[in-house]
Amino acid sequence: MSKKTLITGPTFEEMLHPWTIDPETRALALEKKQSDPLDPINLYNITWRDANNRIYHEVLPHELTGVDAEIVVLYAKDFPTGSHKVGAAYSVLLEMELSGDVDPGVHTLVWPSTGNYGIGGAWVGCRMGFDAIVILPAEMSKERFEQIRSYGARIIATPGSESNVKEIYDKTWELRRADPNVRVLNQFEVMGNYRFHYYVTGNTIVELAEYLAQQGIGRGRVDAYVSAMGSAGTIAAGDRLKQVWPHHRIIGLEPIQCPTLYSNGYGAHQIQGIGDKHVTWIHNVLNMDAIMCIDDMDSVRGLQMLVEEPGKKVLAEEYGIPQEKVEKLSSIFGISGVCNVIGAIKTAKYYGYGKGDVIVTILTDAIDRYYSVMDWLTEKEGPMDETEAKIRLESIFHRATTDWVREGSMHARQCWHNLKYYTWVEQQGKSVEELDAQRDPEWWLAEQAKVAEIDKRLRELRGA
Q1: What is the DSSP code string of 344-385?
Q2: Nearest-angstrom CA–CA distance, 285 and 290
């Protein structure tokens, strides 16, 4: 190990319950969140809770969703970097530090990503004292590239768009072979990503259900959890929810234009952050209850309806949503968030969820990442007026259909799992024995149990 000091941040438990952080550290982190967001102390702001320990969430108005079930979103715009992916990036790097696999004085970190994880890796890696490279498809939004550079990381742009992940993998192998001091932190493979969402996101939702019930919303449980898959980190929260509520349903989402699990499909699409044309190593597909597909342009057009003035006016004046709520919604949605909400509406309709039932989904980032995409849409289709905004509200949200749904039968789940072979055994060096081991639920339980050991090792490092 070099003489360069390791920089660490919170434990998993502190990310879940930030009031357990040392009070002086917590106070300084909250102050620096506003005054100096690049200070490493902001690692302690990686949490789903605000300064008053309230969970970042919104109960969506029925006037928007058009269903009687309660659709509740956790929103990530107030995390460092503006996305919860920073939590996954931190957890992955922390685990590698604790195991001695990385040294800030020696190693260069490579973060393969289609967007938010790379942004998180740039912020985390540079805050923790490492040289960082983000590999990102060239066709992602320009805001992503600007943000990564602002955090001090370098960028390698690979050909293609969201679904061109193989090109990213090929570049990581090229870098590894050229430099023995390169360390690849692959969000699609490393279980620190899974553990952050299983433990922190999952348990946050469990606690949110109790809070909502106290407010007269729901029955103290979450009936379904809906999440699009990119790395399949976020959907790992569903594994925790199903342990708490055995009849809970986990619903995965893909773009219609790239239906990998739905029909072994492929293609390019516009929902940045999901649909990466393969089944990730960390995705527990054997625990997923259904896969649904969402049209990519519905997600893009739906975002424009939520964030631009004609749409906001329609929501407030014609549908009676309070102006304060309309403004809040316009600030917390990104493209994949709209996709997730459409999926939640489809879930309510398909399974017959109604009054008193609660469906939770995630808004992984916000509009600040997509102004250029909104400009592209306007250039492509012309400005959105109030008539068009109303058409979009009705057609995209209220009339969301229950087609493009495949339930997770035992046969379907085995097919989803078997798809891992082509990426992970044929291309990425895993063995068939490692792949087969994931069929046993005990494999996943063992990975979940490592949270306690990792927290213990971090506390010991602090005391050394």
Answers
A1: HHHHHHHHT--TT-EEEEEE-S-GGG-HHHHHHHHHHH----
A2: 10
**AA identity, residue 142:** K
The sheet with strand 405-407 has its strands ordered as 57-59, 70-75, 358-363, 224-228, 249-255, 290-294, 405-407
DSSP E strands: which ranges in 141-212? 154-158, 182-184
Residue 433 burial (10 A CB sphere; 0-12, 13-18, 19+): exposed
At 33 the pLDDT is: 97
User: What spatial distance separates the first Cα and last Cα of the chain, rounded to whole Å?
Assistant: 15
The separation between CA 192 and the C-alpha centre of its own chain, rounded to angstroms, equals 14
Please check whether residue 364 is in contact with residue 56, taking contact to mean a CB–CB distance below 8 angstroms: no
Q: Give the bridge partners for 362, in sequence order.
A: 74
| Token digits of residue 156 | 């390698």
| CA 289 – CA 285 distance, rounded (Å) | 9
DSSP letter (8 states) at residue 113: -
Give the Cα separation of 390 and 53 in Å (integer): 37
Which residues lie across from 456 on neighbouring strands?
Answer: none
Whether residue 463 is predicted with pLDDT greater than 90 in this model: the reply is no
Taking the CA atoms of residue 122, residue 124, residue 127 and residue 129 in that order, the dihedral angle to the nearest 10 degrees is -80
Hey, is 286 helix, strand or coil?
helix
User: In sequence order, what are the beta bridge partners of 226?
Assistant: 251, 361
Calculate ∠ Cα 103-9-107, nearest 5°.
15
Query: Per-residue pLDDT tens for 69-103?
Result: 999 999 999 999 999 999 999 999 999 999 999 99
CA 244, CA 256: separation in Å to the nearest integer? 31
Q: What is the pLDDT of residues 415-455, one digit of tens each?
A: 999 999 999 999 999 999 999 999 999 999 999 999 999 99
Q: Which domains does the chain have, with CATH numbers?
A: 14-45 (no CATH), 57-81+192-410 (3.40.50.1100)
d(CA 386, CA 426): 51
Q: How far apart are CA 131 and CA 122, in angstroms?
A: 9
- What does the pLDDT average to over 326-333? 98
Q: Taking the mean position of all CA atoms in its chain, how far away is CA 132? A: 21
Please give the structure tokens belonging to residue 326: 């309309």
Strands ordered across the beta sheet of 131-137? 154-158, 131-137, 108-112, 182-184
pLDDT digits (tens, 9 = 90+) for 130-187: 999 998 888 777 788 888 899 988 988 888 765 677 788 888 889 989 999 999 999 9
Short-list 290, 162, 168, 148, CA closest to 225: 290
How far apart (Å, rounded) are the C-alpha atoms in residues 226 and 337? 11
What pTM did the predictor assign?
0.95
* Mean pLDDT in residue range 395-411: 97
The H or E element containing residue 152 is none
